[in-house]
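User: Predict the structure for this protein chain, please.
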Amino acid sequence: MAQAHGRVERRDVVASATGAEDDFLRVLNLQTIPMPNGVLGVAEVSKHIGFPVHRAYYIKEVPTGEGRGGHGHRALRQCFLCLRGSVTLRVVKNGRAIERRLGARPEAAIVDAGCWRDLSDFSEDSVVIVLASAEYDEADYIRDYDAFERWEAGADAPLATPYLDLRRYNDEVGPDVELAIRRVVQSGQLIGGAEVAAFEAAFADYCGAANAVGLGNGLDALAMALRAWNIGPGDEVIVPAHTFIATSLAVDEVGATPVLVDVEADTGLISADAVAGAITARTRAVIPVHLYGHPADMDHLKAVIAGRDIRILEDACQAHGARYKGDRCGALGDAAAFSFYPTKNLGALGDGGALTSQDGELISLVRKLGNYGATEKYHHALSGRNSRLDPIQAAVLGVKLPRLDRWNSRRGEHALRYFAGLSDLAGLELPAVRPWAEPVWHVFPVRAPGRRDALQAWLAEHGVGTNIHYPIPVHLQACYAGRWRCGDFPNAEHIASAGLSLPLDPTHTAAEIDLVIRRVREFFAS
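Assistant: Here is the predicted structure, written as structure tokens:
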């Protein structure tokens, strides 16, 4: 017989089809249709069950006094239907237990991921069918309750910490993403349409901007904003020397000249003072990069520009949800470019991007440019291009956007853990955070001057994945050979030689972060 666990909460009132947002057991009435040739009971996947069904099995002829279940699932979601007789379902999560007697009326019990479940007190004639969100996977089972509690608490000591494992997101959002994709495919609207419009509106609102347009990627968002402002040959655009190269490539694409400036020594963000020294009569725009999810000092930058006709284009490709003096990145300049590359804080299932702005005319123009220069089919007012956010990607991003703040909060918890565990190490420099900033920690960048490569090798040998953002500065890339020289931007070069990104993702556990801390400390102790 299954052993009882957790504080019991008996549920005799049928929940709504949606249930409470934080509830791990939903019970819903099945639609029943009496007919001359029998009774038809209906539960639809999208309207009721809430996850795609990939496996179905049934339980019957359970001996008196015996139980079934007695295990937990890490990611599997299940729907229990008692088709005949009755049975007691008990579900436990975070020490809270909910018990429900099934069979007295036509209903379905939906069990969330990350729950322990028991079935007991089967009537002699009971038949239970179980619908599952995934095919059988033994690795998803936890068959010992003590082990389940340790897993919930993240108390099992990990042997390794990957830098990033995108498969982990499937545990939380996989079924919802699958339903969203199915919805798009069934709609037949595979370019543009309601899904894209809904995400654009939701993302603009999230950023505090009046408008947003979905585009093919972050580079397109940067380049098309510059083109919409009629920036091109003969114009200059100021760009930080320490950034992903797409920031500079966008300037090249429109035919303008990228003017690099060095970054702040501690943050790696664009130096407003350096910008002040680089402005000329040809300067048309500045692109501050909210690098690693930390916002640039926008007020200082605006003061430097001081009323000149110079646009500010935020490169917010790593800063989804970050705040500057209380306001989110995405509405701090004249426009803001975002990337939805899969590794971003808000990532799609492939490439994607967006431009946000308070300027509706700008967004309309960029939308036209991204649709071959047309607003009406076969009528091309401009020489445009194909750069659109696909409805499938928009639907996926629409699933993830409501979770973004929670994921960013989790990133913040991990960052605080690193600060607490590594701040006393001589030879290791931790990232600087300005008092007005609320970073979202797309990257947790440390520096180990003179020992970066050795530290990275040590961590790899001891099960910790890392990355380098970025090993070659923009001005030393081969595509810019002859334009700049080594030594032109010393702060950017120092970061490239000393910087190392430690694992930090909302899917990491506290124990995995602790393992990284332990391994880093062991390296410096040795």
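The chain has a mean pLDDT of 94.
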